[in-house]
């Protein structure tokens, strides 16, 4: 399932992955990483941090996302949600913010 999702990333996910795959500040990320019954958009293993990109589809499934985030947190993961529109507007600012959170949680 995760492997198939890697082939169909949304435009904001592609843009974000182009930056995260370069390991900014030495932080390693994985994309479409399986975690339990779920697949995280991006995962920073050193910080046990999951980064989710929220597009319009997420507006319709707020409750589902909340339950998912609660499960992740119950397993000891940190969950960060970023708006797809923010990625499209300024991907470098999003990457900078995510990397700062990862480095602060180490």
The class by helix and strand makeup works out as: alpha+beta
Q: On the 0-100 scale, what is the average pLDDT?
A: 89
Q: How much helical structure, as a percent, in the residues? A: 40-55%
- Termini separation comes to 30 Å
Unreliable stretches: 1-6
Number of helices: 5
The figure for the number of domains is 1
What is the H level of CATH, i.e. the homologous superfamily?
VSR Endonuclease
Largest beta sheet: strand ordering: 1-2-3-4
Net shape: globular
How much of the polypeptide forms β-strand, as a percent range? 15-25%
- For the record, what CATH class applies? Alpha Beta
For the biggest sheet, the summary is: 4 strands, mixed
Q: What's the CATH architecture name? A: 3-Layer(aba) Sandwich
H-E order: HHEEEHEHH
Gyration radius (Cα, Å) is 13 Å
Explain what this protein looks like in three dimensions.
- There is one protein chain.
- The protein is globular, with a radius of gyration of 13 Å.
- The chain contains five helices and four strands.
- The protein has one domain: Endonuclease, Chain A (3-Layer(aba) Sandwich), CATH 3.40.960.10.
- A four-stranded mixed sheet has the order 1-2-3-4, with helices on both faces.
- 46% of the residues lie in helices and 24% in strands.
- The chain has helices spanning 2-6, 11-20, 62-74, 84-89, 91-105; strands at 30-35, 38-44, 49-54, 78-83.
- A hairpin with a 4-residue loop joins β2 and β3.
- With 106 residues, the chain is an alpha+beta fold.
């Amino acid at each position: 399932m995760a492997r198939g999702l890697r082939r169909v990333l949304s435009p904001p996910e592609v843009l974000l992955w182009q930056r995260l795959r370069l390991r900014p500040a030495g932080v390693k990320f994985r994309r479409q990483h399986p975690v339990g019954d779920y697949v995280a958009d991006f995962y920073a293993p050193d910080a046990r941090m999951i980064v989710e990109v929220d597009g319009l589809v997420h507006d319709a499934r707020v409750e589902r996302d909340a339950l998912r985030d609660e499960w992740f947190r119950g397993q000891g993961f940190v969950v960060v949600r970023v708006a797809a529109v923010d990625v499209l507007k300024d991907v470098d600012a999003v990457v900078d913010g995510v990397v700062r959170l990862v480095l602060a949680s180490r």
